[in-house]
């Protein structure tokens, strides 16, 4: 259980275009999902907390108009990188919490496989 | 600013040895603690979580928590080359997000 998928797994785009990344919880409902970014040889950086049916909560320094998050259902959150530039090239990873887990605590996060974005 | 500190390593151990990974955290009120493993180019994978002081064992892995010292560790017994990865310590902030350390790179040599 607690499987999270992401699509696409990698994307290459031209500077100035927008890219949408999907995050799905496959076997559980996730009222809360998280979006992270990871640059090479660095740790995870939380970008925002995505709440189903409400606005996302962005971390300090993350431009909410550039990184649009939509969490329209209990199993799907999307991150759109608008007007992408080369400095946005990174590994984007989503995670979700399975509140209904009977084997875990409900607070652990399960990660998707990540999306590697390259902006030319 | 809540912080989670880990030695970046690399920590090198021979195959079959015990690997000991350590983590300290700054928020004395933290209640939940997690260890994740991340292979190069992949996303993190949950190894185990711990909430109470003491030890928690799961197969070859043992998590140890000492809230008084604000210290959490992960022991890997009978280390295998396949255990070579970066290990991330994460601390729960309230009942929402996790604060991650920068990770410790473990190298297990055959």
Features:
heterodimer, A: 120 residues, mainly beta, 7-stranded mixed β-sheet, 4-stranded antiparallel β-sheet, 11 strands, 0% helix, globular, B: 110 residues, 6-stranded mixed β-sheet, 5-stranded antiparallel β-sheet
Topology:
The complex is a heterodimer of chains A (120) and B (110).
Chain A: E1 4-7, E2 10-13, E3 19-25, E4 32-38, E5 45-51, E6 57-58, E7 67-73, E8 76-81, E9 90-97, E10 109-111, E11 115-119
Parallel strand pairs in A: 2-11
Antiparallel strand pairs in A: 1-3, 3-8, 4-5, 4-9, 5-6, 7-8, 9-10, 9-11
Chain B: E1 4-5, E2 11-14, E3 19-25, E4 33-38, E5 45-50, E6 54-58, E7 61-66, E8 71-76, E9 85-92, E10 98-100, E11 104-109
Overview of this protein structure:
The complex is a heterodimer of chains A (120) and B (110). Chain A is mostly beta strands and 120 residues long. Chain A has no helices and eleven strands. In chain A, the strands form two sheets. In chain A, strands 2, 4, 5, 6, 9, 10 and 11 form a seven-stranded mixed sheet that branches. In chain A, a hairpin with a 5-residue loop joins strand 5 and strand 6. The radius of gyration of chain A is 14 Å and the shape is globular. Chain A starts with a strand and ends with a strand. Chain B is mostly beta strands and 110 residues long. Chain B is 0% helix and 54% strand. In chain B, strands 2, 4, 5, 9, 10 and 11 form a six-stranded mixed sheet that branches. Chain B has a five-stranded antiparallel sheet with strand order 1-3-8-7-6, with no helix packed on it. The mean pLDDT of chain B is 94. Chains A and B meet through strand 10 of A and strand 5 and strand 9 of B.
